Amino acid sequence: MSPRFATDVVTFYHPGFWGLDSAAAVRDRAADHPDRFWGRVLDTLAETEVTGIELTFAPGGIDSALRAYGSAQAFRRELAGRGLAVVSAFVADSDAPDWRHGGNLPAIVADAERRAAFLAEVGAEVLVAGLPMRATYGTRPPFFVDAAYMTRMADIAHVVGEAVSRHGVRLAFHTESHSTLWYERDIDLFMALTDPRYVWLCPDSCHIALGGGDPVAVARRHTPRTALAHWKDAVAPIDVHLTIDETVYARQQPYMTELGTGIVDWEGWADAMSATPGADTVLIELDEAADPVAALRSGAAVAKRALAKRALAAQFSVSGLGEPQIDQ
User: Fold this and answer.
1) d(C-alpha 137, C-alpha 244), whole Å
2) pTM for this entry
């Protein structure tokens, strides 16, 4: 069965798509008219073959959907009427209690449960979270991502993962650039410390590559625990120490690119993804596409080619006929 295609709502955040001159203007307009924001996003998706969406930080988050439609059930009906569905929701650092402060655990759990309840109502099963960001290299006193730190994060993840599991939702961790779950070693350590029944992975091919890692190798090591993945391309690893503050995400942008134009091995990635529990969804991530329709169509084409090559190679392997030759 062919997977469904999905995308993060951040795909639609480019000011040019809205005829505006800044990201702030997009947020302001969406806050004033959430119904118009969502109407255009959903209408635009109808022009592509993308049928799934990942909710994210404002203006494309849970609260905005509730303001626009009044309830999770009404939002689900609006989506279903267009052949769409929510796949997942992403918890951004700026939109949730800080995991670095131990006293925040009750608030962290309550926030996650609220999101999980919404996801259950709209028919989605994955809540994507991240670990806190690193400190800027050279900061004094230094901040180390060591076993003690990861143990604290694992303890919180277990509590949150168990809480959202009661709603039928899986908690999956995103491999965000410059976060404490970025390098291959970070990912392996965190996954080793967490219970596979309650903690899942959402590998992002771009961000892993930006950290100098091998996205395919990571995906293959953690195949059984990959609930969802972000398909995203990277220009090259980030080889400089960026200042980690509220501007870091914007400064990462030049290192990101549309699928098929960067360094990610899409055939290897497709092969690894095909064996995961999240294989039925291909989530194409395109941060702030000026032309979302063209970008999503192009990204879907790249993913389809990679998946087709993987399927054909598997057939030839089973038949013993050797490696097939496929036109580009």
Assistant:
1) 9
2) 0.94
